[in-house]
RNA sequence: GUGGCUAUGGUGAAGCGGUCAACACGGCGGAUUGUGGCUCCGUUAUUGCGUGGGUUCGAUCCCCACUAGUCACCCCA
């Protein structure tokens, strides 16, 4: 116990941290390009926010939340996603006052008590965006294209974008009834899961993988045929906009999102080699959430992407960046007499912004040279007793093995000169 | 949460119910006197083979539980 992480969590070690920095760098560049601004919200919120925001009957809320009581008796929950928090922050800080449209993005840990699997963790990291205050389908298109751009920027191919419309509070209940009517006389033949879905969320029956359920759902009315005029129009426009900017997509009338707050647009980027965890990026419109959280009715769209999954996907296509250590100078100091002058030199080099290392363990010269090599040092500065006596250092270029003797008083300048040339 | 599979050193892994737990990589040291990357040599799990029980004269290899990972389902990022 003492030496293992809790189930479903992971250390990100120095040998892979560059992958995360790489992703974050790409994300920040991209968001700057699209005009989304970073927000950081607390890792935990009042439980009620998620209950209201995500929906009490969703799996996330029913069985995946890390909820506890703090010492003041408040019910606190580690955030299972960031949209509700972003909306809360938007309302609390009255971000709507600055602008009619607020475009936010976030990167951070989320927590869900799931059974862990590759690509599914109890603490995982998401990058997501939220555009709050715009109902035009152009906004949906922008958000989707940002998601597509993100994956494309990373070089990832063979990703499929699926889109759907899940309707609004006007037309979804109508569709729901149609569905229930359709499955009513088939109820007994549905699998157990679907029987419970029948009341709670009949839309979910549509993407059940049970063969019998699949058969039974042949000929079912599609939601896209039952949308109200407004939703149908919105969906229609979205498709045009996506085509106009060359974002490929497939219509998937059975695409359903797991969180209650979605309205109209739902979309998902799938990368099938990841198996059961192939949903790499998903999102949609949530026009009712802001009001649900106590704000004025405000339309919004967003998405979230699982960074672990993105990394897994990149790995399958060998798109992960290499870890390049850049050490400019390695000081090889030999003998006690040389250690302190070497240490002073080390300090001076660093004060001139030169990445420098040295060995403290008193290893042999050969061993120190190996260290220099392992750290990819461009130069080795050799300081032995001879050099100290003569006040001269031997500077070895590790790439071409050329060496030169440099007097101490010009050493730093010479190194700076060499490094910059 | 349900079901299947797996669990050997820093890593990838071989192995048998019973004399030293292969091999490769990595790490460390060395190959005549102060010099790396290639090559070669040595060394690197010292009552040990996820943890705890059990079967057995004896278990890393058999059984059970737990834990963890993994796959599918559920769901989702």
Automatic annotation (TrEMBL):
Binding site for L-histidine: 81-83, 112, 126, 130, 257, 261-262
MF terms in GO: ATP binding; catalytic activity, acting on a protein; histidine-tRNA ligase activity; transferase activity
Any Pfam family matching the protein: HGTP_anticodon
Root EC class: ligase
Main location: cytoplasm
E.C. code: 6.1.1.21
Keywords in alphabetical order: Aminoacyl-tRNA synthetase, ATP-binding, Cytoplasm, Ligase, Nucleotide-binding, Protein biosynthesis
Catalytic activity: tRNA(His) + L-histidine + ATP = L-histidyl-tRNA(His) + AMP + diphosphate + H(+)
Gene Ontology BP annotations: histidyl-tRNA aminoacylation
Entry GO CC: cytoplasm
Domain Aminoacyl-transfer RNA synthetases class-II family profile: 1-341
Subcellular location: Cytoplasm
Family per record: Belongs to the class-II aminoacyl-tRNA synthetase family.
Quaternary state and interactors: Homodimer.
Descriptive protein name: Histidine--tRNA ligase
Species the sequence originates in: Pectinatus brassicae
